[in-house]
Amino acid sequence: MQDDDDSEMRALETVIEMKGELKAYLRMIDRSDAPIPVAEMREAVGIRDLVSVNRELEKQAGGEPFNELVVGHAEVLKQSAIAKLSASSALSEPAQQPIRSASSMSMSPQTAANVGPSIPPESNPARPPEDPRDANGKLIPAFELDRRTVKRPASSQLRLSDVIPTYLSARRLSGGANIARDLSTAESRLALFIELIGDHPVDTYVPADLQAFVNYMQYWPGDNNQRDPDMSPWQVIENNKDLHLKPLAEKTLQEGYLAVIKAAIRSEITAGGFTDPFAGAKIRIPKTAASPRKATPIGTSKMNTLFRTGVESGLMEDIMLPLLGHLTSRRLGLLIHLRGNDIREQFPEVWVGQVTRLSQINGVWTTVPVKTQDSERYFVLHDFLKEIGFIDWAGRQGSNFLFPNIMKLVDPSKSGSSYMQRLFKKAGIKPKSGEETVGRREVFHSLRGGNIQDMRDSGVDPRERRVQAGHSAGNDEHDLYGFDVATEKEARKLKVLPLDPEIDYSIFRGLDFDEIARRKRVAGPPKRK
C-alpha cells in the first residue's frame, strides 16, 4: 500500500512539473510583455522548488554529490512546493498549515543553541522543527541537528540495529587470531553510533550523520581506561568538553570508528538494493584529532644498543625480530608468524620468507593478520642470515613457529608489539620529555623504514623496493606488467645489499639458535640455561 501511494505521488509530481513548465513557456510566448500575476509567480516558484528537490534526490540515488540540506528536508520542501502549485490538490492537505516565513521560523539564541552543535539532553528527545533556523533566520546545518530525531524519508530497509548481527557474522567468517576481540570492538563502536545518531533504516543515513558523529567524537577520550564506565556516552562527551583527557587520534577515528560504521551500513546494499549513502562524502576531521605520528630513523649508535640489548636478553624474539625488521623491511605482525616452512630456497643460494593469509595453527586452519595481499608475496632474505646460521636453524623447525614465546599467547600481534616496546625502552630508545606531543617516535616501524632507505641508497629500483617491502608494485600501468614478486636477478641484488659499516653485526655470529629457542619468557629478568 505504501508503494502504491509513493508511486501515485511521484506520478502526480511529474505531471505537475510538466504542466507547470509548459504553462510557463506558453506564457513567455503569448504574453512576453504582460505583468505576471502574483498567483502565477507563486506557481512558478513551486515548480522550481519541486524540480530542485527531485534533482537532488536523483543525485543521491545515483551516488552523485548532493545537497544534504535539501535531501534532509525533502518531504517538507515537496509539500511546500505542491501547496504553492495547487491548494485544492489532495497532496496539499498535509501542508494546509501556513508556510512560515524566515522571521516566524527564527529562534531565540537559547533555542538555537539547543539544536546546534551542543549535545542534546537525553531527557528531552522532542523532535526539533523540520527546518530549524538560528536567530538570524539562517538554516542550521544538518550535521548540527539532533540526528536521532531528524525526519527521514519513508523506507522499507532494515534498521541499523537489525543489520549489525548479520554484518558481524560475515566478519566472523574471516576468522583470525583476534577475531573475537575485533568483533567486540566493532559492536561497541556501532552501538555508540546508534546512541549518538539514532537507529534508522540503513538507506536513510546521509553524510551529515557521519559529520555529526565526528563532531561529537572530538571530545571522546582516546584511552578506554580513562572513560568512566558509570557514565553514559553523552555524559562522557560532556565531561571531556574541556579536553582534560586526550581525545581520539585521527587514524583511530577514521579507520577504527568511521570505517566500521560505513562497512556495516554498506553491507546491506547488495541485499537491500540501494545506493551507497556515503559515496563521495568528505567528512571534516576536527583539529583535536591528532594526525598519525611518523616513525623516525634510528641512528647507528642506538641501533647497536638495540641489537646488543636483544642479544643480552637471550630470547629469540628480542634477538632476531629487530634484525629481521632491519634486513627485510617487513611488518612486525607478519614476522612473528614466521614458521620454518615459510623459509625456502627460491633460487639457487637465494632464500626467501613468505607468510600467507591462511595458515594452520594447532591443527586448525585460520587466517593470519596479513595487512594486504601484497604483504603475502615472498621477501628476499639477506645472506647475513645464512652466514650466522639462522636460515639453517629455521629450516629445521618445519611447521613450528620461529617465535613460540609470542605465538602461544592469546593475542600474538598485540603481545609482540608490547615486547618490542619494552625492548626499545630497555635499550634507551624512547621519546624524550615532550616528544610525545610533537609526534616524534623511534619504534619497530623505524627499522622497516630504515631498510627501505638502505635499498634506496644502494640504487634498488623503486618497484623492487615496493615489492620487497610488501607494498603494491605501483599505480603506473607499466609497473603492473611483469611479475609481482622479485625476479631471480632482482633477488640476487637484494640478498647482498651492503650492510652499514657503522653497525656492529658481529654480535650475531656464533649464536646457538637451538639453545636460544629453548629459553622461555618469564616474569622478571630472563634466565639463561
Secondary-structure blueprint of this entry?
Layout: H1 2-30, H2 38-61, H3 68-72, H4 74-85, H5 109-115, H6 160-172, H7 179-197, H8 207-217, H9 233-239, H10 250-266, H11 269-272, H12 300-313, H13 316-328, H14 332-335, E1 343-347, E2 350-353, E3 358-361, E4 364-367, E5 379-380, H15 383-387, H16 390-395, H17 404-407, H18 412-426, H19 444-457, H20 462-469, H21 488-494, H22 513-517
Antiparallel strand pairs: 1-2, 2-5, 3-4
Helix pairs in contact: 1-2, 2-4, 6-7, 7-10, 12-13, 13-19, 19-20
Biased composition (Low complexity): 87-98
Biased composition (Polar residues): 99-113
Organism: Rhizobium helianthi
Report what the structure shows:
The protein is mostly helical. It has three domains: 1-99; 160-272, no CATH class; 300-517, hpI Integrase, Chain A, CATH 1.10.443. Helices cover 46% and strands 4% of the residues. It is built from 22 helices and five strands. The chain has a three-stranded antiparallel β-sheet. A hairpin with a 2-residue loop joins β1 and β2. α2 runs antiparallel to α4 and α19 (444-457) packs antiparallel against α20. The longest helix has 29 residues, at 2-30. The protein is elongated. 29% of the residues are buried. Residues 1-6, 87-126, 432-440 and 476-482 have low confidence and may be disordered. Residues 118-127 have a biased composition (Pro residues). Keywords: DNA recombination. Residues 454-467 have a biased composition (Basic and acidic residues). This is Integrase. It comes from Rhizobium helianthi.
